């Protein structure tokens, strides 16, 4: 096993913490890439981003299992930054999903209207019954 190293704050970083910090870095990079692409409407390979995020989450969960029960303040702060990035990414994804659902509803309505001859649409639209 390798010896613990230190970071800029002067705290000693064990190999388990270093592995977790690396996993957090990788996940943050993937999240930042996806969030930025959606926010700037830049085309990107969503399947590749999803693969990256899946690999990062697996790496993160494996690294977390090796951690000691007590975490230091620097690690807690890094997890807080990751949480904020996850929340931002979740928000951006929810906006994109809502927009896609709205477009799908518009297309569905247009297709239904183009296929209809109008015979039943006036009564169905008002919820009236026959008889």
Automatic annotation (TrEMBL):
Q: Which InterPro entries match?
A: FlgN-like_sf (IPR036679)
Q: What is this protein called?
A: Flagellar protein FlgN
Organism classification: Bacteria, Pseudomonadati, Pseudomonadota, Alphaproteobacteria, Hyphomicrobiales
